[in-house]
């Protein structure tokens, strides 16, 4: 046979009840499949055949299934990953003048192709420099003791360095985390000092300490420094002195909140020949893997003769799965499929309900912040409560005030 698919891995979201999961690639033995359970915290556990699961469909070109035993059913919020692992051995022994059946040669070639696909899958998950970039030394020469407690980064030549001291980074991160609290405390202390300085001082005579035996009027005893205005009231009677903080006329507090604004994304789906068979093209690309962000709405317009559908199984109903309908609305007349990605959506596969082998994969990552809201005290005209302040993602204090504007998607602050 030939190997006509590059799929070597299937991924499913568990629900505490499903025990059978399909794999859509050929394996030559039940030991050539690796079953991994990924917990919600990212912990990965490789399961054991016989103890945790059993395998069916060995030798089938379209794959088979993995069935978990009752006491090891995958739980909700866990991910089940089925991955082909071909042994890195060569079992074909060619003896001189003996028959050489084509099936034996083809089986050996199939195994080499399977190994190459599995190595490519590992390479696709690795960190690499681009085709047009260079890196002189990609090796880490420092031993484990030299690398212990250090950061991985790049030296002055752009080469890998596993001995970067990270203590400064930790210190800076702590200082940055404390900066907003320190700024808030400074603003509070300044306000308290100003209020105290503005309290009128009473008495006709004043001494500054128990060691000062010379009495004097307030105006002579108190000196005003830079930024402090001294005012005397009732100088000829019960003299009063007032100190006022000057020069701060428009102090501002700016609070920033990040948020998510969902969007609607249209996609045009067409069908054309690819690798000798018909395939879905999305925005002109053949069978692409797309990222569908949670919370966004995606509208797929497809050809009437090739109904577009989603499934948690590769190739959908052709791969032994069923159509996925959560958040999905189909308009047959307009030949559109609309998908509102829910929170915690599983990895999905798009396919043609009428023809096999035409689809690809949709990943459904969590959303990221794409909106910035600025709240200000409006030069003292508005108040910010303690609860509002605590909820800010970041805070700026300014004596003169900022003006914020947008330019080509960038936030511009003008003093």
Task: Summarize this entry quickly.
Helices cover 16% and strands 32% of the residues.
Mean pLDDT: 83
The class by helix and strand makeup works out as: alpha+beta
**Beta-strand share of residues:** 25-35%
Helix content: 10-25%
Number of helices: 5
Features:
single chain, 415 residues, alpha+beta, 4-stranded antiparallel beta sheet
Topology:
Layout (H helix, E strand, L loop, with lengths): L8 E5 L6 E4 L9 E6 L5 E3 L6 E4 L7 E5 L10 E6 L17 H23 L19 H4 L2 E5 L5 E6 L1 H31 L20 H4 L6 E6 L6 E6 L6 E8 L4 E11 L2 E6 L2 E2 L3 E2 L5 E5 L6 E4 L16 E4 L4 E5 L7 E5 L7 E4 L7 E6 L9 H6 L2 E5 L4 E5 L2 E5 L1
Parallel strand pairs: 13-17, 16-22
Antiparallel strand pairs: 1-7, 2-6, 3-4, 3-7, 5-6, 8-9, 10-11, 12-23, 12-24, 13-14, 14-15, 17-20, 18-21, 19-20, 21-22, 25-26
In words, what does this structure look like?
This protein has helices spanning 102-124, 144-147, 167-197, 218-221, 386-391; strands spanning 9-13, 20-23, 33-38, 44-46, 53-56, 64-68, 79-84, 150-154, 160-165, 228-233, 240-245, 252-259, 264-274, 277-282, 285-286, 290-291, 297-301, 308-311, 328-331, 336-340, 348-352, 360-363, 371-376, 394-398, 403-407, 410-414. With 415 residues, the chain is of the alpha+beta class. The strands form 8 sheets. The chain has a 6-stranded mixed beta sheet with strand order 15-14-13-17-20-19, with no helix packed on it. The longest helix is centred in the middle third of the chain and has 31 residues, at 167-197. 15% of the residues are buried.
């Amino acid at each position: 046979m030939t190997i006509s698919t590059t799929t070597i891995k299937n991924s499913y979201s568990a629900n505490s009840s499903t025990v059978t999961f399909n794999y859509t690639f050929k394996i030559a033995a039940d030991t050539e499949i690796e079953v991994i359970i990924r917990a919600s915290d990212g912990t990965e556990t490789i399961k054991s055949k016989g103890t945790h699961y059993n395998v069916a469909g060995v030798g089938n070109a379209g794959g088979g299934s993995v069935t978990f035993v009752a006491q090891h059913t995958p739980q909700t919020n866990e991910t089940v990953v089925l991955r082909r692992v071909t042994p890195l051995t060569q079992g074909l022994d060619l003896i001189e003048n003996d028959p050489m059946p084509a099936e034996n040669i083809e089986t050996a070639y199939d195994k080499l192709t399977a190994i190459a696909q599995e190595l490519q899958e590992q390479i696709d998950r690795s960190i690499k420099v681009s085709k047009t970039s260079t890196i002189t030394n990609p090796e880490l020469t420092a031993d484990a003791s030299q690398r212990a407690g250090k950061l991985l980064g790049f030296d002055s030549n752009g080469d890998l360095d596993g001995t970067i001291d990270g203590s400064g980074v930790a210190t800076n991160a702590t200082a940055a985390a404390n900066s907003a609290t320190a700024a808030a405390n400074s603003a509070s202390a300044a306000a308290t000092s100003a209020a105290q300085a503005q309290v009128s001082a009473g008495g006709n005579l004043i001494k500054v300490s128990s060691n000062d035996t010379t009495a004097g009027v307030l105006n002579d005893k108190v000196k005003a420094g830079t930024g402090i205005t001294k005012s005397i009231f009732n100088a000829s009677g019960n003299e009063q002195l007032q100190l006022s903080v000057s020069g701060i006329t428009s102090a501002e507090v700016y609070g920033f909140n990040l948020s998510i604004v969902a969007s609607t994304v249209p996609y045009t789906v067409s069908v054309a020949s690819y690798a000798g068979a018909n395939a879905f093209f999305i925005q002109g690309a053949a069978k692409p893997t797309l990222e569908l962000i949670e919370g966004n709405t995606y509208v797929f317009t497809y050809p009437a003769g090739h109904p577009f559908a989603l499934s948690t199984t590769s190739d959908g109903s052709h791969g032994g799965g069923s159509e996925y309908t959560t958040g999905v609305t189909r308009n047959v007349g307009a030949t559109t499929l609309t998908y509102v990605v829910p929170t915690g959506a599983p990895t999905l596969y798009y396919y043609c309900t009428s023809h096999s082998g035409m689809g690809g994969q949709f990943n459904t990552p969590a959303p990221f912040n794409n909106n910035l809201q600025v709240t200000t005290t409006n030069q003292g005209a508005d108040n910010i409560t303690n609860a509002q302040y605590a909820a800010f993602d970041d805070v700026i204090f300014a004596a003169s005030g900022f003006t914020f504007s947008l330019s080509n998607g960038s936030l511009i602050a003008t003093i």
